[in-house]
Specification:
Elements: E1 2-8, H1 35-42, H2 59-70, E2 75-77, H3 83-86, E3 90-96, H4 105-113, H5 120-139, E4 142-146, H6 150-156, E5 163-167, H7 173-181, E6 189-192
Parallel strand pairs: 1-2, 1-3, 3-4, 4-5, 5-6
Protein name: Radical SAM protein
Organism: Candidatus Aramenus sulfurataquae
């Protein structure tokens, strides 16, 4: 059993086949790029260990993992494809977002240049969100969202997200997680305070 599992949608949880330049394809309208190309070439799934935990993971998730482990929580970082297998093994699901609605400058510009429509980044997040919502209804875990694209979520405030965490996590995220595990009330939106250098745990 884990206190927290950490994940993200496929648009973030991939190595872009070894070239970050290929990640720009995910910022294009998804109608233009077949899924088989995304799965095989541009945003392939990441390898896992025997339990299903990620061998390699986005830097942001490893930083959050370090913060929570350093605070005494049991944490697993998993790719989105393994979410269903871990949903019954945790009380909190945390995830990072980069561009959940396709609003960042690259996505907006490429979508405009190629005739409009939802980007793959938005499509990946929509699929991830639907799975998290369904699993939350079944297993009753709490959901925390954060990351560089969390500002996009603050525009919509999805009801299935219990806490939207903005800014740095080192000082305040452990307090939020503990409060959720203790079934205490937590604000829907939390603004983390900036840590000093010696308050940032190593990965």
């Amino acid at each position: 059993m884990y206190d927290v599992i950490l994940s993200s949608d496929r648009g973030s949880f991939t190595d872009y086949n070894g070239s970050s330049v290929l990640g720009y394809v995910a910022c294009m309208p998804y109608r233009l790029v077949p899924r088989v190309f995304m799965d095989k070439f541009f945003t392939p799934p990441m390898k896992t260990d025997k339990e299903g935990k990620a061998i390699y993971a986005p830097y942001a998730l490893r930083k959050i993992e370090a913060v929570l482990v350093n605070s005494g929580f049991k944490v697993a970082v998993i790719p989105p494809e393994k979410l269903h297998a871990f949903a019954r093994k945790t009380r909190v699901v945390g995830f990072t977002v980069h561009d959940p609605f396709g609003l960042n400058p690259v996505s907006a510009k490429l979508s405009f240049l190629f005739g409009g429509g939802p980007t793959w980044t938005a499509k990946f997040f929509q699929e991830f969100a639907e799975e998290v919502k369904g699993l939350k209804q079944r297993f009753g875990f709490k959901v925390i969202a954060g990351g560089p694209g969390a500002w996009e979520l603050s525009l919509a405030k999805p009801e299935w997200i219990d806490v939207l965490f903005l800014n740095e996590a080192e000082l305040d995220l452990p307090k939020v997680v503990k409060a959720l595990l203790d079934n205490q009330e937590v604000p829907r939106i939390v603004h983390g305070k900036s840590p000093k250098a010696d308050q940032i745990p190593p990965i």
